[in-house]
Design a protein that fits this description.
The structure is a homodimer of 215-residue chains. In chain A, α1 packs across α4 and α2 packs across α3. With 215 residues, the first copy, chain A, is an alpha/beta fold. Chain A is built from 8 helices and 10 strands. The longest helix of chain A has 19 residues. Chain A folds into 2 domains: 76 residues, Orthogonal Bundle (Arc Repressor Mutant, subunit A), CATH 1.10.10; 111 residues, Rossmann fold (3-Layer(aba) Sandwich). At the A-B interface, α1, α5, β8, β9 and α8 of A face α1, α5, β8, β9 and α8 of B. The structure holds nicotinamide-adenine-dinucleotide (2 copies). One nicotinamide-adenine-dinucleotide (NAD) sits at the interface of chains A and B. The structure holds a DNA duplex (30 and 30 nucleotides).
Chain lengths: 215, 215
DNA sequence: ACATCTTTGTGACAATTTTCACGACATAAG
DNA sequence: CTTATGTCGTGAAAATTGTCACAAAGATGT
């Protein structure tokens, strides 16, 4: 399952982005695409795109570009788009509710299968077709789920994290400001919206000529 | 205003994070802190922290560490925590509503001053104390505002972006999947939640031993 | 068939970022 | 005063990431 040929992390982070735009091209009926065109669409230098693709071998044809259908098929396999990864969401508050209402499933190999909250008014209801269980049932319900979205209050973050890991979760998308502690082998991506906003303002003031920056 | 001594971008992105944790320490009444302690709290290598701080001169004392109050004061000035930057939010849907309900102002030099939407049912109301105007009033109301949070549907993103820039906005926090095109001098940070989730899953499967990763 | 045009894949290089490791100084204790 | 311990700031090295620029391969047009 896990490749031994190590793709650079920076490349790996761009793959889902490439996938989405290639999929768009396919839907639009385009048959081929050059690294230059793709570059304008995703705002990544064309040389970087060619380099990224080249880690997977020769996907294109010189003088022609890339065949959209072939590329799409390739990325579908590489990103495991066929098997849906079940995801749990913990904390159905402002943010959590927004995510449940959003259809992450479109164009995506992930699906939020269940949500948990401590509020008895929320437990037993559904949002966006996702059932909400009581947090006490976490260990019991989380059997197949390996990935979790964490949108609980700051004070609960570490505690819930430990329960998630005990239940077999190996990946967490953490929206709380807490920098949670996890054992080796558990992957955490922090998305810290306050930091993002402050960081944007800092760059606006101190780097006035630059333009684009991945979050 | 803008420094000529260039702080590395990677460092600049960590500054708001440092600021928040130093502030926490101050609230807890701690008088001093070492790079090692801070490292455990923010999950950044201690050498990296020392290096980051050193771009601003010698903030610490050898054999002692950093004085929390001094550090806090220093970061407050560096991150312009005194002057609040006004921000506008465009698109009061699922995500936009969550952001309006969240108090970004806490511990933060930014404040969402106004919001815009096309839906007449939302126009004229308030969420979290923030007034919602009609999108037609954008140009008229946006006089002081230089930063915007974009949470409109994909199809509207580029169009609204252009109107924002015409109105003087120089920084955009973009939550739509569109990679918007902007002229030089306008800063865009993309936060692409579908990509983040797919990327997490990819890393879980292909880099099973790594642990932590900034979004 | 041939000349011309396109675009890939990549060696070489440049830039950025992280990490190592140690001298220098601070503090505390005896 | 001396020693033991702790911690910074930083030169140097390593690791990672991005970019340039071009030969090679194939596409296109006449
Ligand atoms: N809303 C935003 O725009 C925003 C922005 C930045 C960061 N955040 C962070 O995201 C997190 C969630 O924010 P929010 O605005 O949605 O908060 P919220 O208070 O609206 O939602 C938190 C939810 O978690 C539930 N909860 C509380 N304790 C729980 C527990 N032990 N187990 C399960 N559920 C529990 C609550 O019932 C509530 O529904 C917070 O950590 C916040 O700091 C939110
Ligand atoms: N909700 C999520 O969890 C989520 C996740 C990933 C990405 N996104 C992206 O974030 C964006 C917003 O998502 P959402 O779920 O909040 O969508 P939404 O449909 O709930 O909200 C969009 C809002 O924008 C308003 N709007 C439409 N046209 C407008 C215009 N021309 N000017 C001003 N306002 C206008 C609508 O009235 C609506 O209130 C979308 O681009 C979506 O792809 C959302």
């Amino acid at each position: 399952m896990s490749e031994q040929n190590k793709i650079p992390q920076a490349t790996a982070k761009r793959l889902p982005l490439y996938y989405r735009f290639i999929n768009n091209l396919h839907i639009q009926g385009k048959l081929r695409v050059s690294s230059k065109e793709l570059s304008e669409a995703v705002k990544v230098d064309s040389a970087t795109i060619r380099r990224d693709f080249s880690y997977f071998g020769a996907l294109g044809k010189k003088g022609y570009g890339y065949n959209v259908e072939y590329l799409l098929e390739f990325f579908r396999k590489t990103l495991d788009q066929d098997e849906k990864t079940p995801v749990a969401l913990i904390g159905v508050g402002n943010l959590g509710t927004a995510f449940l209402n959003y259809n992450f499933t479109k164009n995506n190999n992930t699906k939020i299968e269940m949500a948990f909250d401590a509020d008895p008014n929320k437990v037993g209801t559904e949002i966006g077709g996702v059932p909400i269980y009581h947090i006490d049932e976490l260990e019991q319900k989380l059997s197949e789920v390996q990935a979790a979205i964490l949108t609980v209050p700051l004070a609960e973050a570490q505690n819930i994290t430990e329960r998630l890991i005990k239940s077999g979760v190996t990946g967490i998308l953490n929206f709380t400001p807490a920098r949670i502690t996890v054992p080796e082998g558990v992957r955490v991506h922090h998305i810290d919206l306050s930091v993002e906003l402050q960081s944007l303002v800092y760059f606006m003031k101190h780097y006035p000529l630059d333009t684009d920056e991945e979050a």
